[in-house]
Amino acid sequence: MLRPGLVGLFALVLTVAACGAPDPDGGENSSGSQDGGDSTAEISLLTASIPESLNPLAGFGNTGKGKINEGLLTLEGGPTELPELVPHLAAADPEVSPDARTWTVTLQEGVTFTDGSALDAADVVATYEAIADPASASPIAGDLVNLQTVEAVDDTTVRFTLAEPQVSFRTALLIGIAPSESITAGQQVAESPLAQEPVGTGPYRVESFATDRLVLVANDAYRDGAPELKRITYVLAADDNTRAQRMTAGEFDGSVLPPRLTETFQDDERFEVFHATSADWRGLSLPADNPVTSDPAVRMALNLGIDRQAIIDGVLVGTGRPAHTFIPPEYGEYHNADAVFPYDPEQAASVLDAAGWVMGADGIRVKDGQRAEFTLMYRPSDLVRRDLSAAFASEVLPLGFDVTIEGVDFDQAEPRAGQDAILLGGGDTPYDVDSQIYKALHSSYPAAGAFYDNPSQYADPEMDAALHEGRTSVDPAARVAAYQRVQELYVADPSMVLLVFLDHTYVQKASVGREWDNLSTMLEPHEHGTAWGPWVDIDQWTRRS
Q1: Is 198 exposed, middle or buried (0-12, 13-18, 19+ CB in 10 A)?
Q2: CA 223 to chain centre
Q3: Record's superkingdom (predicted)?
Q4: Mind listing the pLDDT tens digit for each residue in 193-227?
Q5: Nearby residues of 21 by Cβ (< 8 Å), 6 or more positions away
Q6: What span, in angstroms and rounded, lies between the C-alpha atoms of 488 and 397?
Q7: What is the spatial distance between Cα 449 and Cα 480, in angstroms, rounded to a whole number?
Q8: Residue 408 domain-assigned (yes or no)
């Protein structure tokens, strides 16, 4: 889901802008590819969000595709399949004990940070210990709740010991590594110098960083050779319509845009439109303290009474797939194809009638004097969330629900999350089914995390047991059975109304593809933008001859 710390603040949700150096007024010169070549190999990127912190200890670049700080593992895969987690700073795959409690990682030799220091086991230990330390207040500390110890066996070997088995611990090895010399034990991540001046092993380093602009330049000492694309400038434009307008005006080479705003670019030969499949879901919480949404009959009826495909077609111009549970089909055998809510408004009405929700003369149901009404909050700057909220409210009105939608920023939404529904998103690290679903349904959340983790405060001992079995089992067949059971339990008693798995949509000038090779996409997490899309491996771009 959209996290103000982990995603909104630390993820590069960025969009590509024109080749060439920025103009003084914030526009961009188009002196690159469309003029027949740019020997300086610069590109500017228009972004929906500039991160407040570049600190990997705070979660910046923790998805395995960081350009500044790199993880022990990285992602490798195609556009519609779960990526494999393969060695990056690690020299080889981790050695995992039979009980999946001990993970031993050997580091590549000859890797250096941008400050000139050599990567060693002490850097890895310091990074993970700092994140796990409650004093650091790291927003990704919850990813390491099972980590018991991390120790340097020698200069190039690190051993992680877990409190209990966890096959999905591989996803925790995507976290970016910082040099131990830059880490102060007990220091809050927000106060660390790494927030503004990160030191990494990646293909780029920071040249300048401000609230409205971030400039990366090639790391000439990078172990695999400096990228051919020498400079990337990220420029802030938070409003979706503004980015679309500036694209139409020809100012920028590319952008991440809501699906409907990409329609005008489809038939324009100056541009290419990219669609990237994701495990990024959108849905709304059903607060446990709200007298309407706390009723199991209401939760079931709301899931049965909406036409998800109609919402996708209307709001997203067809760019997405219906979401019933948190596990999309890309998870293969873990996905339960039978765990769905069929669109059945008649059955939804019957469920409500049986539960005592009587249709009133004004078309809104009432039970024991309680009107079937509630507020649905959405992030006001996000057009997709706004339109999904409005579509949901329209869909459930014939069922007898009066839903008021309200644009509310996250800091204002948090204290209201127990009473008012909120349109959320998720799939932060979807590279194992455990990391996709555990926080969304386990009863230890939201107390163990943030208010957007299990926001409806769902609590079921049988669900907890199935989630624990899936997390701790080393038997693949047992894990599959556990997650099949998780989905069965969920559709029998849903805690939310999931709507869609998004296809992320991007627009790029056609001239970029004519000049550069290796533009690709992969299955994307909740985080998206020019850190993803056709630019996910921008450091590997090569000029066409």
Answers
A1: buried
A2: 28
A3: Bacteria
A4: 999 999 999 999 999 999 999 999 999 999 999 99
A5: 28, 29, 31, 42, 44, 233
A6: 28
A7: 26
A8: yes
How many residues make up the chain in this entry?
Answer: 545
- The SS3 of residue 362 is coil
CA separation for the pair 45, 123 (Å, rounded): 31
Is residue 116 left, alpha or beta, with left meaning phi > 0 and alpha meaning psi from -120 to 50?
left
Burial class (CB in 10 A: 0-12, 13-18, 19+), 254: buried
Are residue 77 and residue 204 in the same domain, yes or no? yes
CATH number at residue 330: 3.10.105.10
- The DSSP H or E segment spanning 322 is strand 320-322
Contact by Cβ (8 Å): 136, 188:
yes
Residue 430 falls inside a structural domain: yes
Domain assignment present for 274: no
Does 407 share its domain with 433?
yes
Question: Do 349 and 342 contact (CB within 8 A), yes or no?
Answer: no
Contact between residue 470 and residue 506 where contact means Cβ atoms under 8 Å apart: no
429: its two tokens:
């690290």
Helix axes 383-396, 308-315, angle to 10 degrees: 140
Which domain covers residue 157, as residue numbers?
A: 42-240+504-543
From CA 132, how far away is CA 140, in angstroms rounded?
Answer: 8
Report how far apart, in Å, the C-alpha atoms of 518 and of each of 9, 512, 535 are: 28, 11, 9
Query: CA–CA distance from 98 to each of 137, 143, 167, 470, 478 (Å)?
Result: 33, 22, 10, 16, 15
Residue 154 structure tokens? 């020698």
- Give bridge partners of residue 426 from the DSSP assignment: 281
Tell me how far apart the alpha carbons of residues 523 and 308 are, in angstroms, rounded to a whole number: 22
- How many Å from the N-terminal Cα to the C-terminal Cα in the chain? 42
Q: Which of 340, 336, 335, 349 is nearest to 301 (CA)?
A: 349
Q: What is the CATH number of the domain that holds 48?
A: 3.40.190.10
Asked whether 133 and 117 are in contact (CB, 8 A), the reply is no
DSSP annotation string for 8-73: TTTS--EEE--SSPBPTTS-B---SGGGT--TT-EEEEEES---S---GGGTTTTTS--SSS--SE
Residues 318 and 386 in one domain: yes
pLDDT digits (tens, 9 = 90+) for 63-114: 889 999 999 999 998 888 889 999 999 999 999 999 999 999 999 999 999 9
State the Cα–Cα distance between residues 55 and 139, nearest whole angstrom. 11
Tokens of 295: 């009723």
Does 137 map to a domain?
yes
Query: Residue type at 95?
Result: E
- CB of 399 closer than 8 Å to CB of 448: no
- Collapsing DSSP states into helix, strand and coil, what is residue 121? helix
DSSP per position, 432-498: SHHHHHHHHH-TTTTTTS-TTSSTT----HHHHHHHHHHHH---HHHHHHHHHHHHHHHHHS-SEEE
Lowest mean pLDDT across 54-58, 263-267, 518-522: 518-522
User: Is the Cβ–Cβ distance between 49 and 236 less than 8 Å?
Assistant: yes
